[in-house]
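User: My instructor asked us to take a sequence, write out its structure as tokens, and then describe one feature of it. I'm not sure where to start. Here is the sequence I was given:
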Amino acid sequence: MNKLLLAFLIIACASCKNKKERDERKGPVLDSVSNVIEVPKDLKEISDLTFVNDSLVAAIEDEKGILYFFDLSSKKIVREFVFADDGDYEDLAQKGDTMYVVKANGTIYEIAKFMSEHPQVTYYKTPLKSKHDVEGLAYDAKNNRLLLSVKEKNLDKNHDEKEFKSIYQFTLKDMKFHEEPAIKIYLKDIEAQFKGDELLEASKDFLKAIGNKNLNEVIKPSALAFHPKTGQLYVLSSINKFILVLNADGSFSSVKRFNGAEFIQPEGIAFNAKNELYISNEGRNKKGNIVKLID
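Assistant: Let's start with the prediction itself. The structure tokens for your sequence are:
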């Protein structure tokens, strides 16, 4: 009886060790519950955020054309600026004293001198439409351009979304949208990360999605952000809770997975000056929040 009990304990310990090792390889993890910041009801549908300084973030939500300034310390909205009528606003990016906001239909709003008393707003139409569902926007300082990711359909109907998803560019030198994808996200690159033992670490839903051979069931880009130190592009997926990391040249680097009830509906991603990673979540039937992760 004692031998049987000892054998059981050994197996149990080994199982716990293996689970711990699997958990440690999942990628970003919550540091503690203190890293979850609930946002006011005006930001329940928070779509994205970007850091103005260490304690102040600019944020948008997907129903109103308002740029909110939210203080992380006091957890209060300290300023609001109406830049457009109500609509589906999805992501924002900052270049110096200019803020850019993208609408789901591909329209880009430029808010010059956004911290001044009277910011100047200009908007630019692109060939993208609501059916493409543009949810990602990032400023690429190296190439002086904005990158826009589609959540659903590619612009060119001949580009199969089941195989790759497009990220387009809007060059700021000439304020021009380029219809040829600047970056392509391939299903095969993501699928290759889940072979052998790695399959045991992924969620059943994720594995099932990959098994469908349909990129639309694997990743739906909801936000973009460049890592300040490495220059890599982080692509947040609103389904399957993971971040796709691309190298500066657009090539595949890695997949980082995250878990937790705090991630209600991941919609925004941002880095602060300390290279710390934050994800904003729409609230659904709860309060929206901003979560700090360890990368």
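For the description part of your assignment, you could build on this observation: The chain is about 10% helix and 45% strand. Try explaining in your own words what that tells you about the chain.
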